[in-house]
Amino acid sequence: MKTYTTKNIRNVVLLGSSKSGKTTLAETMMFEGKVIDRRGTIEAKNTISDNTEVEQIYQRSIYSTPLYAEFMDNKLNIIDTPGADDFVGGVISAFKVCDSGVMLVNATQGVEVGTEIFTRYAEEHKKPLIIGVNQLDAEKADWDNTMDSLKQAMGSKPTIIQFPVNVGSGFDSFVDILKMKLYRFKDENGTREELEIPANLLDQAEEMKAALVEMAAANDEALMEKFFEEGELTEEEINKGLNIGFLNGDLYPVFCLSAKKDIGTKRLMEFIINVAPSPENGVVKSTDDKDIVCDPNGPTTIFIYKTGVEQHLGEVSYFKVISGKLSEGQDVVNPETGNKERISAIYAVAGKKKEKISEIVAGDLGCTVKLKAVKTNQTLAQPGSDLVVKPIVFPPAKYRTAIKAKVEKDNEKLGEILNRANAEDPTLRVEYSKELKQTIINGMGEQHINILKWHLNNDNKIEVDLFSPRIPYRETITKVATASYRHRKQSGGAGQFGEVHLLIEPIVEGVEPTNRFKVEGRELVLNIKGKEETPLEWGGKLEFYNCIVGGAIDAGFMPAIKKGLMQKMEEGPLTGSYARDIRVYVYDGKMHPVDSNEISFILASRNAFKDAFKKAGPKIMEPVYNVEVLVPGEYMGDVMSDLQNRRAMIEGMSSTKGFEVLKARVPLAELYKYSTTLSSLTSGRATFTMEFADYQQVPMDVQDKLLKAYEEEEKDE
Ligand SMILES: Nc1nc2c(ncn2[C@@H]2O[C@H](COP(=O)(O)OP(=O)(O)OP(=O)(O)O)[C@@H](O)[C@H]2O)c(=O)[nH]1
Ligand SMILES: [Mg+2]
Which DSSP string corresponds to 208-267? Predict the structure, then answer.
């Protein structure tokens, strides 16, 4: 392969909803770029992009796949991404390393939820976007509907560069308004004729051209002025105006495609080479907010955007050269860990096909193998450089499941594999919860987890059970109560004796502690001598007051009393969940000159606390999440009633760009497999996010159920 300079590189991410045809387009682009001489198909499971067994089984993209073609003396790097929400991690990491995007819209569907989400990402990442209306050859393709939905979702940004002549199964021609020509395709291999626009389409073409010129003029003041004065622009000026608008993300040029029949692919690739930005002027921020400029003569900095294990190669790390050059044999370091790595080989990548190269420059994408300890989202740099590329921020998880090996002895190995999966895919977060005594996987959806399960079964031969995870409930109290407990043991040997009287009350924000209480029909005035405040690992706090008078209990036993309380705070009296936000006043008790010791007071305080807790209006609290659903209007009613069945508090509704946005607070206990339900309610046309909000008391009926379940569990043990 020839060596490319930074300005001869284009990095483009292929985006779009599931099944819009990204992988098929990638295949056709590889064909046009002469990487392959026969095109594979999704159905025949032989595309260059969907090259893993699991993608072929499911007939969809699961991972983002880097590909490249040498085209018009440039290196065109393409990342084919998965369209399903569950695999969005691959899309987000592709955004980090690509300089523009092609958004495919399925002409039989128009704008879908995925289109909307990925457009938002492109705007956030400030990446110029080209729109490809694909599948124009499909029987049910509808150009007008598709354009209407694009305008509804994106306002005036979609800018028609081409329009189709004969949409549907006979599709073979479109008019290109920039060139003012008609392109007709003679076969399914991209062979095209360039013809004059026939008379019956000329008016339409001219009308669109006028709109295009106006759109072009709007992006530059000088052009605008000239346009107003003279009423027209030269070809060159039109291109200039469109380029400015495109690069600023103010307009999205719209192209006609049939990826399947190779119609329009080459023209799209030409446009990318001619107009889409090279990485040349790209700037990436470092973790300390410095600019890292894409300069081939700068210090070597590479960013790892994807890692994975591949047959015959072992660990493969995919990177972008952010600055400088990288050569075979070069030594680099991970500035965060200090780990040294040697770049034993560099490859240009087209799916599984990897071509060895000896050097790669700033802006280019490549991969290397056998690095010792590098994870996705890390930087490698030349020794002495401390610049770390700001890592990609992945969206919060929205699917939570507990996992366990079917065979106990596999659990250790399972733990290791899960940790590695977590390092490869940052949207798959694995934690062992000490509190819940479960290994919990947080991912993006049921499919995401099913793919993990597939790998565990097939690659690692581990059978696992996935099941509903426990909920991290909390316990607290709602009113004042007192209790006392005497612990005494006198059977043989040394005896045990300790007696504790205590009062407890809830900590309520904004309510100051007091020393006067009316409780259980009497008035108690306490003499507060000491206060300890303990923030709790699991949220909230414990306040501990020493109110002992007349030496009823030695100060030396106070730590034991607190220890007893903490034991019960860690294993709440109601359901064994953590307790929080409680004030405890120890105001009386008794000692024995010989038999009192630490253990006696631990036990006395534990039991006194437990008794008081049960009298103090105890409540179970549950985690509540802020949920935001993006849904097409027609499914709104179904989504809403489903949420209401999940004890949701609807907080707001609004519409944006053709979709409804529903905001609600929903208990975590009601969100198990929500993504799956939402998907089936809306034929996969809605999406949502969820984020922890706070804890709130569970309703009485739910509390009763939880108490019963806990009693049963205790009995079993
Ligand atoms: N008629 C027609 N079918 C197409 C075209 N492009 C893709 N398809 C078909 O649409 C289906 C989905 O195509 P893919 O290329 O897998 O779509 P994708 O966008 O990569 O889908 P995901 O990877 O699941 O996000 C396949 O059955 C393709 O054969 C097209 O231009 N015309
Ligand atoms: Mg695909």
Answer: HHHHHHHHHHTT-HHHHHHHHHHS---HHHHHHHHHHHHHTTS-EEEEE-BTTTTBSHHH
pTM of the model: 0.87
Helix or strand (DSSP H, E) at 713 = helix 700-716
Report the separation in Å between the CA atom of 192 and the middle of ligand 1, taken as the mean of its atom positions: 22
* Assigned CATH for 400-470: 3.30.70.870
Class of domain 283-381: mainly beta
Burial pattern 300-323, b for ≥16 Cβ within 10 A else e, equals bbbbbbbbeeeeebebbbbbbbbb
| pLDDT(622) > 80 | yes
Are the C-beta atoms of 18 and 113 separated by less than 8 Å? no
Torsion angle of C-alpha atoms 648, 652, 655, 656, degrees rounded to 10? -90
Q: Quick check: 622 and 473 in contact, CB under 8 A?
A: yes
Same fold, 400-470 and 620-702: yes
In words, the CATH class of domain 620-702 is: alpha beta
Whether pLDDT at 259 is above 90: yes
578 or 492: which carries more pLDDT confidence?
578
Pairing between β-strand 158-160 and β-strand 252-256 as defined by DSSP bridges: parallel
> Which atom of ligand 1 is closest in space to residue 80's alpha carbon?
20
Is residue 414 classed as helix, strand or coil in its secondary structure? helix
> CB under 6 Å to ligand 1: residues?
16, 18-24, 41-42, 60-61, 82-84, 134-135, 137-138, 258-260
pLDDT, tens digit, for every residue of 206-215?
Answer: 999 999 999 9
As a whole number of angstroms, the distance between CA 361 and CA 194 comes to 37
**Which two structure tokens, joined as six digits, stand for 399?**
């699917």
Rg of the chain on CA atoms, in Å: 32
